[in-house]
Fold each of these.
Amino acid sequence: MKTRFLILTTIVLSLLCTHKKVYAAACTFTSPLVQLLSTQTVTINNVQYCKSVIDLSVDIDINSGNKWTYIHLWKLADYPNLTYPNPSSAPTASDLANALFTIALDNTNTGNPVLSPTYPPDSDPSIKVLDAADGLTYTKTLISGTVYRFTFKNIEILIPGACDAGNPPVFKGDSWSSQSNNGKTVQCATAGITITANDPTVTGTIDCGTTNILNFAVAVNGLGSTISFQFDVYIETNGNTQLDLGTDQKIYTGATTYNVTQGSNSPMNFSSLTMPAIYPAPYSNSNPYHDKVLYIVLRDMQISNGGGAPTPITTALVTPIVNACIPLPSAFENISVSKKSGKLVVNWRTLTEKNNKEFIVEGSEDGQNWTVIGKLNSKAVNGNSDLPIDYSLALNVPVSLAAIGLGGLFLLTLVRSRWLRALALVVIVVAAGACLKDGSTMEAKKDSIAYIRVAQHTQDGGVSYSKVIKVVND
């Protein structure tokens, strides 16, 4: 099964603000992450604009010293190259004349920051300050101590004119914090955060099978542009379907630099990348990772256009590849079998279970021909579990179904009453069926069993098998 990516994410991997211990508590603004949700042409009052919608996440130290945090963004061509000596006066209306937006986070009431509708350093109404009235919201998640991850949602950026696929916009921004109650003095700053919008683009698919296969392509949209990059791959592990460098796991780190040129070798295809190579076991074919989202991260990018000097991009582009592979009904782990005190003891663990019913233990002399020798019902509630479950089955000296049958038939010859014979027959059938109840065994010559495997049966009749395990004598 194949799936296309949903959204393009832009993430700033390492932008740390400078610090100067002017006050008791230093301000911080670290690990900014920008997610580009959409770019499209819209018409407002009969005027066309290219509208980009983004979410911005950043770690901010909300302490008694950090009173205000600001974010400004410009088109690359309009970026004013402001300098931020420490401390310094804040940017003014003239500095922000071409800014696409400003966000002002007021933390003068420590622990309860709010979005300010005004820009305290300069009250000029021409400064475009985004707040709740513009649909801007934010969430706050504790990272550690007084450091929180803020996610500012639904930031709309309007650029006059229709979107041009051959000339995708590039943005550049600054962020800074103040430890003054009036918010007018810069204590720390991060300048020159560069963000590309829709260039390059990545499309990808995951071919499902016993071993998943990842395929993706990188396309350059800017006319005549060349983009160089390296790439990494992450797997979704925290369940929020958004790349989180702190919890999602990197499963491949690239070391090769690729160059893609629009009109030449674009798109560049990365095909038949088998998961064991960049998606090592157990992630490629075992739950809970078999059906998880992957993130392709293009980093260390530079954009060259028309032979000019390359522009370093201080962000990394992240594309989520939605994984629609059908989850395996269970993922086996730690399967073992041994002989102890004349018994065969089989142990196994499931990492997850989905729509599970029971486990049938099978034995074989040659590893080819299999005989059912025991059964256990699933311990998972309703057959579903996202947590590991341990199982153990001790195969006792078996009671032969054949012996039950022959003995029962012999007993029937001793019973003259017709209804007693009928009752005895029922008892024989029940006794025989009991050999397949939960935890029971069927007859097997344990001394001849050299191999064991576990068959997992789903509630809808599906069957999957564990790997084959050789019997170990105690």
Amino acid sequence: MGKRNNTAHRARDTLEFKLEAVRLVKGGQDVGVTAKVLGIAEKTLGNWVRLSKTVELKGVNPIALNS
């Protein structure tokens, strides 16, 4: 197996990354296209968007999602 790029993986795990991804989708961007551009699975992004609606996205302040 090849070496995993831990820096890139950690960047995808940050709250800021998740919030920005959700904001893009809520702003009208297509989930599939956004996921591809960000280098994450479409299902993952869809889960983040779904969880953001119920304020279960880990560490999310509901006010941050409405900005």
